[in-house]
Q: What sequence folds into this?
């Protein structure tokens, strides 16, 4: 191995024992010599054991007296990634236990079940950068074969009928008893709610086609993932089918070429592929094919209360794992400018700058209830911003930059009027004779 990498055996031994840093040059040699994707090194330990996630864990008030420093967290994350992930899993289970009714967990005797299926699946997908080559390959072949310049849904419907004998019919919400879509395998009938918006009806057909067309691939991927319980297994299976549905509607090569041609204009891409804003935004985060990568976007979806219901990262953006988002990010302002794109340059505490765009979307099901909007937030590193249609006319060198952070409990910024809680482990600098911009000044 040392010969393959062009280094001495003793130096390789130091690398293996973590006594020397693995340089960028060594990583590139590893990638070339052993034909691997460098991102696997980050993916193997998953998202849970990263220094950012551990910092959020140890920001919990239960650890405040320990005064755990940043360097200790970095050492644990770098030198013992499996232990770091174990700590994160334990804390996740504790958080879920706090939120659950008292009787849950006591009767089961299975503490692993305290990590919810949603949490497990989110971490599994995040650790793989939301990109699954096997599904991409199959979906690109099928999507290309079903191409139709006049309709997106019609060739999908025909494929279901001709290949699997499945009829598609629109049904009333009363008939579906509140479901958005139901497949009856005995009658070979797919029922779609009449309340679904057109793009979501199309996606529903693509979803059902994915379940049938890619059943062997999805089953193998689920088995390889080894979900811890039935709930996680079913949710992961559904997530893979959703992924494939988006890839059928927006085949990889054709979609990436259109993104570059239209400068990542969401509205233009929606029209081109018969998709909606959320579907296109989500697809942005999956373009990680080796040798043909798109812009590494991150994406969040929130409701008006700030609850995060989707989170995908194409690059290392400091998401809060256990909290919401920074109120200084204009993602929240999108609700006050419904239907408009709200752009912003932000800077995280580590000095990295990102170009972001936020806009509201409608829920898939039409409803008479108020507050039916959600907000999508997309962002990428500032170095990619010049490629974006929504950045046209913005002076990226001189435009104002908004400092943002992760959850308040782990944000190191001193002068923030939006701070909701003081950072864990930092003594407050409050005095009755002096008020500050931040409601919780602390000793830096």
A:
């Amino acid at each position: 191995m040392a010969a393959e990498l062009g280094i001495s055996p003793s130096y390789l031994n130091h690398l293996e024992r973590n006594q020397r840093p693995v340089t960028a040059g060594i990583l590139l040699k590893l990638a070339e010599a052993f034909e691997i994707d460098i991102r696997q090194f980050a993916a193997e330990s998953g998202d849970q054991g990263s220094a950012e996630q551990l910092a959020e864990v140890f920001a919990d008030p239960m650890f405040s007296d320990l005064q755990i420093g940043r360097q200790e967290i970095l050492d644990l994350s770098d030198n013992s990634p499996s232990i770091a992930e174990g700590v994160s899993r334990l804390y996740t289970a504790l958080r879920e236990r706090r939120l659950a009714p008292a009787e849950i967990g006591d009767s089961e005797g299975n503490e692993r079940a305290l990590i919810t299926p949603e949490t497990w699946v989110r971490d599994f997908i995040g650790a793989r950068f939301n990109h699954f080559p096997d599904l991409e390959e199959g979906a690109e072949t099928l999507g290309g074969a079903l191409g139709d310049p006049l309709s997106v849904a019609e060739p999908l419907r025909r494929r279901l009928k001709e290949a699997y004998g499945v009829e598609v019919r629109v049904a009333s919400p009363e008939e579906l008893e509140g479901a958005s879509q139901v497949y009856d395998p005995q009658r070979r009938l797919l029922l779609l709610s009449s309340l679904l918006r057109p793009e979501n009806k199309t996606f529903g057909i693509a979803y059902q086609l994915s379940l049938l067309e890619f059943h062997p691939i999805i089953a193998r991927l689920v088995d390889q993932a080894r979900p811890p319980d039935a709930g996680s297994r079913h949710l992961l299976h559904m997530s893979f089918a959703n992924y494939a549905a988006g890839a059928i509607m927006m085949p990889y090569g054709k979609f990436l070429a259109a993104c570059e041609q239209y400068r990542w204009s969401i509205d233009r891409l929606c029209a081109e592929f018969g998709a909606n804003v959320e579907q296109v935004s989500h697809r942005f985060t999956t373009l990680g094919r080796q040798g043909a990568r798109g812009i590494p976007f991150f994406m969040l979806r929130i409701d008006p209360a700030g609850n995060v219901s989707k989170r995908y990262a194409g690059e290392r953006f400091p998401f809060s794992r256990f909290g919401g988002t920074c109120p200084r990010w204009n993602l929240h302002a999108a609700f006050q400018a419904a239907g408009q794109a709200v752009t912003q340059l932000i800077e995280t505490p580590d000095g990295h700058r990102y170009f972001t765009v936020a806009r509201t979307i409608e829920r898939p099901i039409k409803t008479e209830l108020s507050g039916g909007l959600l907000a999508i937030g997309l962002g990428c590193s500032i170095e990619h911003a010049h490629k974006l249609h929504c950045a046209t006319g913005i002076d990226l060198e001189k435009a104002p930059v908004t400092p943002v952070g992760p959850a308040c409990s782990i944000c190191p910024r001193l002068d923030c009027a939006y701070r909701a809680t003081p950072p864990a482990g930092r003594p407050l600098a409050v005095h009755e004779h002096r008020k500050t911009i931040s409601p919780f000044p602390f000793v830096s």
Observations:
- The two ends are 46 Å apart (CA to CA).
